[in-house]
């Protein structure tokens, strides 16, 4: 495994802090179905990112107060968002650069804004594919 791949995995685990280190293939699936711990949402402080989780403010407050686990659907959205953030930071460098890129229309996505595509798995796949292409020097 390359050093870069280790950085990506460490960043993903960092974004999902409190969910326990998951290194084996297939274990994220199990953790998501069980419900990621709510404290992982606290890593997502940007309201723009929080909306991608599909959680209302009242629900966030109740879940935070109860310390309950997220439901599987919300856990899946949190994982999807965290994965793209980790890939973007891995490819583009600092978190600030990654967020700037994710907020701007990208020619490689037909002028769409990457964050807007993260509401579906298909959109997240398109964003990740473009980031991987950029990582290999293919910018179109």
Short structural description:
This protein has 140 residues and is mainly alpha-helical.
The SSE string, one letter per element, is HHHHHHHH
Helical amount among residues, as a percent range? 55-70%
For the termini, the CA-CA separation is 27 Å
Envelope shape: globular
Computed over alpha carbons, the radius of gyration is: 15 Å
Main sheet makeup: none
Mean pLDDT: 80
Number of beta strands: 0
Q: Can you tell me the residue ranges where pLDDT is under 50 for at least 5 consecutive residues?
A: none
Structural class: mainly alpha
- Range of strand content: under 5%
How many DSSP helices? Answer: 8
Keywords:
mainly alpha; globular; 140 residues
Plain-language structure description:
The protein has 140 residues and is mostly helical. Helices cover 61% and strands 0% of the residues. The two termini are 27 Å apart.
Which secondary structure elements does this structure contain, and how are they paired or packed?
Layout: H1 3-15, H2 27-34, H3 47-52, H4 57-66, H5 72-92, H6 95-103, H7 114-117, H8 121-135
Helix pairs in contact: 1-5, 5-6, 5-8
């Amino acid at each position: 495994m390359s050093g870069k791949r280790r950085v990506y995995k460490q960043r993903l685990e960092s974004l999902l802090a409190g969910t326990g280190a998951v290194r084996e293939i297939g274990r994220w699936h199990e953790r998501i179905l069980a419900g990621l711990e709510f404290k992982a949402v606290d890593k997502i402080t940007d309201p723009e990112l929080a909306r991608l989780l599909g959680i209302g403010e009242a629900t966030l407050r109740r879940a935070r107060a109860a310390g309950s686990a997220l439901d599987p659907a919300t856990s899946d959205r949190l994982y999807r968002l965290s994965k793209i953030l980790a890939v973007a930071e891995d490819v583009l460098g600092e978190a600030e650069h990654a967020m700037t890129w994710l907020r701007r229309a990208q020619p490689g996505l037909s002028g769409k804004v990457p964050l807007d595509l993260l509401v579906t798995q298909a959109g997240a796949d398109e964003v990740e594919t473009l980031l991987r292409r950029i990582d290999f020097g293919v910018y179109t």
